[in-house]
Amino acid sequence: MTMQFNDETFRGDYTFHNSPExxxxxxxPFDRDSYAYSVNIEQHPGGPAGxxxxxxxxxxxxxxxxxxxxxxxxxxxxxxxxxxxxxxxxGWDLLELIMVSKARDYPELFSLSRDGTxxxxxxxxxxxxQRFTFLDATTLPCGPLEYITRQAQGDFALLHERExxxxxDAGMITSQADWSLDFDVGxxxxxxxxxxxxxxxxxxxxxxxxxxxxxxxxQSYRRLNWTMTVNPRLDTSPENYHKWGPEKRTITxxxxxxxxxxxxxxxxxxxxxxxxxxxxxxxxYLCSLEDLASQPKWARRLHRVLRDIDxxxxxxxxxxxxxxxxxxxxxxxxxxxxxxxxxxPD
Amino acid sequence: MKKLVVKVTEVEALSPLVKRFRxxxxxxxxxxxxxxxxxxxxxxxxxxxxxRNSYSLISDPYDGSAYEIAVxxxxxxxxxxxxxxxxxxxxxxxxxSAPANLFQLDLRARKHILxxxxxxxxxxxxxxxxxxxxxKPFELHYAARSRAEAAGLKLLPEAAxxxxxxxxxxxxxxxxxxxxxxxxxxxxxxxGPDGLIKAVADQAARLGWPKTAVHSEAFIAPPPGEPFEVVxxxxxxxxxxxxxxxxxxxxxxxKVEIDYxxxxxxxGRCQTHVTACDGRIEHNDHWLSEDERAEQxxxxxxxxxxxxxxxxxxx
Lengths: 346, 315
Description:
The complex is a heterodimer of chains A (346) and B (315).
Chain A: H1 20-24, E1 42-44, H2 63-76, E2 81-83, H3 88-105, E3 110-115, E4 118-123, E5 128-133, H4 144-149, E6 155-162, E7 165-172, H5 181-184, H6 189-192, H7 204-213, E8 220-230, H8 241-244, H9 256-259, E9 260-271, E10 278-288, H10 289-292, H11 296-308, H12 311-316, H13 323-331
Antiparallel strand pairs in A: 1-8, 2-7, 3-4, 4-5, 6-7, 6-10, 8-9, 9-10
Helix pairs in contact in A: 11-13
Chain B: E1 3-13, E2 18-24, E3 39-46, E4 49-56, E5 67-72, H1 80-86, E6 93-97, E7 111-117, H2 122-134, E8 138-144, E9 162-166, H3 175-179, E10 186-191, H4 194-206, E11 214-217, E12 228-232, E13 238-241, H5 247-253, E14 272-282, H6 290-295, E15 298-299, E16 305-313
Parallel strand pairs in B: 7-8, 7-10, 8-9, 10-11, 12-16
Antiparallel strand pairs in B: 1-2, 1-6, 2-5, 3-4, 12-13, 14-15, 14-16
């Protein structure tokens, strides 16, 4: 079956929507009825057929619309994509990884032919055909990182390893949960995570860094992270806070089900072969509370998680202001029944 | 860690003590490309034990058609290099790890100085190919005792920026002359004996080089030693580490689950908490700090050994 792509927007009139199939495959992040920081790392790719974990880089019904939204964000603010000079090789590594994966996993949508360094790439959904010379940036319309991430859903951070640390030295960041590449570029792992409450003291970052430094090529991993967003907006950046911050105040008991979204990040970790850099793709999935409530297990569980969450985390994730309304809305779906283990719907 | 089964397609003596091995995918598929300075871990099964040694890749990092390593025979070692020299033949299939890199080039550098002593030439053989492809300025200095022992000579191109220092011929390496006057933003990399690594670091410090521009790799195969016993805390099991076995290999043979990567005391992956120590840990790694060594509360099982009455590990 050929994939159908939604005609939808992530700003202005917010026509973003999930089909029933998209709801069923939503990467619901809670495997139990409570939430605490955990490393929750699994090997990637790999998962049930049709799930967003099945392939290296998931392509879904939002692909074309998300790429259009990225183009709008970049036209307004080119600094959302930056690559320090020593990161160009990592950009090529990422380009290869994405092109090879997509052509293998979605042959009806993408194709890649390689003859030595002469490459021929076809992206049917976006109507792109490109012949270029691998590792020669003059043969692409822009740098390799920008070129390929204009054609791949999710944000991408490229981390350079040195001095026993990881440095955020390149990225394409247009669908972020309130952080700024322009501010963080060049920072090390501890510096760019400084705003996360409590975690440093708990030793979470020391362990996470040790894990990441040990990631080797041919062996990649994933974890899920989450936050809450009002309206289906990808660009929740500090740069545009004035546009989306006030929207938090538009939530009412009547519209909370439709306007409040659970925002899930599917984060994956890849050791890149030529540059030895780490790629850190952060793919964003959005689902409204009313769509989540179509799966009774998720509605029950989300109610319990958001009701009992640590107040500091509700603040950090930016939904403390609407927490009461959200919990009240979800309470109607929670009959107190037990929920089954794992993240998948019943 | 991902493992690959490869076929030995060439074995060549580079010098009386050093052999080059070429590995290809048995079905001719492409192997993963890698970065200059990367290594692989080679599995050497012998009876009940699987010995694993890490060797730097010396082939073109962007060429997936084969991997090559160069192995120096260490007759005083645990037997890993002897196994490679005497047992491994063209046509054999062996298991290796995917490449990993603990000695990567810092591509921010304006210029790279590579300094090799003896078999320490190996990581630079892949790095210089990467530097050539990246069109980055570099110099390589290779020191060896004699021309006969200098296995790297057969693998190095002739070029003005590749300098060979043969001490027997009176051409000793002058580190002061090499490091002095280099442009700002130059990085130096050393691989070889500990003494050489220290001499380069000292010279660079005297000349005011930033520490972050001075890199080295000294990982070597684990040394043999006296047999000793170790207790696994969770099970109470006592395991004997034989003379020609590393602690890590003994734990693996006893099916104790333990993480590892480089197996040469450089990556930190197998670091293990010591819950009881009545005796002295012989720290042979390059990972723990002087203070951590003195405390005897942590050990690197891939390299280190023990002398004394009781060693208990938090495993």
